[in-house]
Amino acid sequence: MGLGQMGWPIARNLARKGTGAETIVAIDADPARVASLSEPGITVTTDRDAVAGADVLVLCLPDGDVVEAVLFGPDGLVPRLAPGATVIDLSTIAHDQAVRLGEALEAQGFSVLDAPVSGAPAGAEAGTLTVMCGGTPETFAAMSPLLDRIGTQVLHMGPLGSGQLTKTINNVIYDINIAALAEVLPMAVAMGLDPERLASVVTTGTSRSYASQYFVPRILRGEFDEGYPLAKAYKDLVSAAAVSIGRGFPLPVTAAATATYQMALLAGHGARDKGAMVLPFEAMLGVKVRAPSG
Questions:
Q1: What does the alpha-carbon distance between residue 90 and residue 103 come to, in Å, rounded to a whole number?
Q2: Residue 257, class by beta-carbon neighbours within 10 Å (0-12 exposed, 13-18 middle, 19+ buried)?
Q3: Are 240 and 257 in contact (CB under 8 A)?
Q4: β-strand partners of 89
């Protein structure tokens, strides 16, 4: 369920690497999206009744509220599943919500893995995602052959909720990297450094990271619309803040990165990718971190 940038290539890999004896149904609420998708071995539909009797339900949805509605809402999928079915949630949602929803499913006799993924749409297409799983060892062992079709790193992180907690930590470290680039690169340019030469250093020197290698070339070209939108990705920092507040863990660097994120959102860049965090700093300092042709 959920056939967006991640869900559809995941569904295709589940089918392409399957046993041939399975029935695979791919569902999305958007009729236009469903009409545009086709793959041998997959039934693509908007009809939720097509999952009737399913042994495994895989979710790849935008946020926790959508996951909850799809499972338990007025037209929820839970009553349609086979008794004892397994629910694998690849969505990225808050740790506490993952635990609550998982426990509600287990109370009805279902097995559950919270299994968010990392690797971006390119990893979903290639089947090279990292899959971080929370749940019982038995459920993880039973579902590992299925998850091996979509990822090259399929890891059992611990009990229910551990997958989401791991994903939150991974994403927050990533966000901190991008926030640091956003505030420091314009300062460097304002001090007279050449953007392209500076980019060569931060993408190859000791400060290099996946964030710099992905976003800095795009910032130089003035491209801010290729990645996951800021407004949607903000949920990762909200999840980290919830953990911090609920358990009293101080996260000062994360809080600072969150403020940088919020600056970009308040400046109207929510529909753009995380690289757009550089734009408010450029505006404040009156510079552009661009290559001559960017």
A1: 17
A2: buried
A3: no
A4: 59, 114
Long-range contacts (CB closer than 8 Å, 24 or more residues apart) made by 258-265: 260/179, 260/182, 260/183, 261/175, 261/179, 261/230, 261/234, 261/237, 264/182, 264/230, 265/230, 265/231, 265/234
Burial state string for 165-199 with b = 16 or more CB within 10 A and e = fewer than 16: bbbbbbbbebbbbbbbbbbbbbebbeeeeebeebb
Chain position carrying tokens 């909850």: 68
- Nearest Cα to Cα of residue 62 among 229, 275, 264, 254: 229
Distance CA 287, CA 178 (A): 18
Domains, the chain, with CATH or none: 7-158 (3.40.50.720), 165-285 (1.10.1040.10)
What's the pLDDT score for residue 19? 82
Distance, CA of 143 to CA of 86 (rounded, Å) = 9
H helix and E strand count, the chain: 13, 8
| Number of residues that make up the chain | 294
pTM comes to: 0.86
CA distance 142 to 192: 58
3-state DSSP assignment of residue 237: helix
Task: Give the confidence band of 21 by pLDDT, cuts at 50, 70, 90.
Answer: confident
Average pLDDT of the chain to the nearest whole number: 94
- Known active-site residue 167: yes
DSSP 8-state class, residue 268: T
- From 167, 235, 274, 288, active-site residue: 167
Confidence of residue 243 (pLDDT cuts 50, 70, 90): confident
CA distance 23 to 41: 8
Region label for 129, one of left (φ > 0), alpha (ψ between -120 and 50) or beta (otherwise): beta
Q: Could you tell me how far CA 131 lies from the centroid of its own chain? A: 11
Q: Which helix (H) or strand (E) holds 67?
A: helix 64-72
